[in-house]
């Protein structure tokens, strides 16, 4: 394997997403998470058209005691650049930012990001139980004894937004309704049957104000994304999707240190990503947003600048975030309807790339004149709004 080409002295190399793929998703009872990693990696490499020998960078988190060492060994890779950043659901956008920086600087040729989980199957088989918290050590020791679970933290933040800005239960429910409508056009989505606002509101209460359909599905699945330096783009099988700008930010670990429950760390990561990409939120054609709960979608839309603070409730009404809406959001159905196997951040990048390539089938977003979208943003959130990574992608 040859060494990575050096970055130009006049400018860093451009970095493109050249391969994306999903492993089997939804209900997968007969494979291991390692197998899902391998399945996704093989499919992403095939999608790129590049030989695996080009891959000298690898990023993975969430599996094994020494991720990404164990997963790389399972895949038969011996990378010279690695990343095992773990910041919850935002992990993959942050990893993509690190990988893009490494490739741009000449420290790697091509970096493979891969994820796989059998979270649903493991619970059904009794291999694990559902967890209520992230542990009871360090700062968390002051919250866990009082039963402050992860979902309760999101629910409390949602209630604060409702109190401060008048956001309604019906508006939060609209997020779930639109996600399901988008999923209806996605044959790979786990749940595709339409739901109504009334059905969302009438569901069993999980954590006030969240009923069941306000919460993400639990699924199995995996996916992979391959980033490469611009000099490899002529050898790829499909048109590149360029990484235009990235941003990352951490906000807090304990709720007592969160200055404002109505502001997520995407307010910083998004601003940085848009500034570095040289674009504005108004330029973006679609958004893929981490949606473990409906409130996450609403507040992230505000913090990314698609509407003003406090106006997220009105923004998500009347199908404005649907496939034919003003700003299509979570076009595959998101974590609320498509899939959510533990950490979903990498799926956001896969869907954004598929949309920009025009490969989304019945759920394909179109601009005026039946043109393909040109700009997309993927924004992941980790923990309980503790971390955020935002990536701006473009065809040009």
From TrEMBL:
Domain of life of the source:
Bacteria
SUPFAM superfamilies, per database record? Thiolase-like (SSF53901)
Q: Which UniProt keywords apply?
A: Transferase
Annotated Gene3D superfamilies: 3.40.47.10
GO terms assigned for molecular function: acyltransferase activity, transferring groups other than amino-acyl groups
Concerning Pfam families, the annotation shows:
Thiolase_C_1
InterPro entries named in the record: Thiolase, Thiolase-like, Thiolase_C_2
Q: CDD domains, alphabetically?
A: SCP-x_thiolase (cd00829)
Domain (Thiolase C-terminal) spans 247-395
Put simply, this protein is called Acetyl-CoA acetyltransferase
The organism is Streptomyces violaceoruber
What is the organism lineage in this UniProt record? Bacteria, Bacillati, Actinomycetota, Actinomycetes, Kitasatosporales
